[in-house]
Design a protein that fits this description.
220 residues; Arc Repressor Mutant, subunit A; six-stranded parallel β-sheet
């Protein structure tokens, strides 16, 4: 199993200790360190000394600021898990759109945290179900849809099922023996039929139509 070097960037000792305790219960990491200094974190990223950076929304705001962080992060290969202060944060969509691989709510469980970790070490993206409702609010007409009334082809149903399981377009192409470009087309068709602007919104529509508690799912 591949081992990853992780840095927890945060100023609260108790929160750092809690995150480290959760991380130590997995087998993914060869080293776990922490820093509260943005310049030190930036240096580690520049030197390719870490694989995963775990941060909090509050730390980003108080240290480099959201926009400087996003500009810097977009140029790195480091995978980022961001813990958001609460589910009503105004920054969730912006953080996700910046390319951050995983967003977890501060109130989420240890199990949800581990779901996020498992996703990003596999190169996938993850948004906790607690945070999905923060994406663009859906028109009421979408909420009235029933899944069985959406006219999908057999191939589109296959694509939708794999999307809901967190597979990327490239991975879906490999599984179905079709090109990534073909998958791109099917994904766009599915989004259009559900009236969704992106995959996160599509998953929200599906969850809403099932009229049940949101399931844990990876969002690419």
């Amino acid at each position: 199993m591949t081992s990853y070097k992780v840095v927890v960037a945060e100023s609260s000792p108790s929160l750092i200790q809690g995150i480290q305790d959760w991380l130590e219960q997995t087998d993914y990491f060869s080293s776990i360190t922490s820093t509260s200094d943005w310049n030190e974190a930036k240096k580690l990223i520049q030197e390719n000394s870490i694989d995963i950076l775990i941060i909090t929304e509050k730390w980003i705001i108080n240290s480099p600021g959201i926009h400087p962080f996003m500009e810097y992060f977009s140029e790195s290969q480091v995978r980022v898990l961001c813990i958001v202060d609460n589910s009503t944060s105004n920054n969730i969509v912006e953080l996700y759109d910046s390319g951050i691989q995983c967003l977890i709510a501060m109130s989420d469980s240890q199990e949800e945290f581990h779901w996020g970790i498992k996703a990003i070490v596999k190169g996938k993206r993850h948004i906790s179900s607690e945070l999905l409702s923060n994406f663009t609010e859906l028109p009421s007409s979408h909420k009235a849809h029933k899944l069985q009334h959406i006219n999908l082809t057999k191939r589109e149903e296959e694509i939708l099922e794999l999307i809901s399981q967190g597979y990327t377009n490239k991975e879906i192409g490999i599984k179905l023996f079709i090109s990534k470009r073909t998958v791109d087309g099917y994904r766009e068709a599915v989004l259009d039929k559900f009236g969704a602007k992106n995959t996160a919104q599509l998953m929200t529509i599906i969850t809403d139509n099932h009229n049940s508690q949101p399931t844990k799912m990876h969002v690419n």
